[in-house]
Amino acid sequence: MSKNEGAIDRTLRVLAGLALLSLTVVGPQSLWGLIGIVPLLTGLVGFCPLYRVLGISTCPVKSR
After folding, report:
1. Cα torsion angle, 33, 37, 38, 44, sign
2. Each residue's pLDDT tens digit, 6-63
3. Residue 32, exposed/middle/buried by CB under 10 A (0-12, 13-18, 19+)?
4. CB of 60 closer than 8 Å to CB of 9
5. Torsion of CA 56, 50, 62, 40, to 10 degrees
6. What is residue 10's predicted lDDT score, i.e. its pLDDT?
7. What does the pLDDT look like over 35-46, one tens digit per residue?
8. Its pTM surpasses 0.85
9. Cα–Cα distance list, 58 to 20, 24, 38, 45 (Å)
10. ∠ CA 4-9-11 to the nearest 5 degrees?
11. Would you list the domain boundaries of the chain?
């Protein structure tokens, strides 16, 4: 599993994930905020399975 997300992409995913997760505690307090786990985890790991399927990579370094 090679990284396919660049630094900006990863940062935005982590921020979006945290924002969505915060909806479970503040705001509407809905469990829909748990969907924030997906961008949070992909941002932390640096790998997006959907990017792999679509052949997209925002990572500047070519992986083998």
Report:
1. positive
2. 999 999 999 999 999 999 999 888 899 999 999 999 999 999 999 999 999 999 876 5
3. exposed
4. no
5. 120
6. 97
7. 999 999 999 999
8. yes
9. 23, 30, 18, 14
10. 120
11. 7-54
Hey, what are 37's tokens? 């786990």
- Stated as kind and residue range, the H or E segment containing 10 is helix 7-22
Which tokens go with 60?
A: 């500047």
Burial 33-48 (b: 16+ CB within 10 A, else e): beebeebbebbeebbb
Residue 10 to residue 14: CA distance in whole angstroms: 6
Neighbours of 50 (CB within 10 A): 10
pLDDT at 9: 97
Q: How many CA atoms lie within 13 A of 24 on its CB side?
A: 11
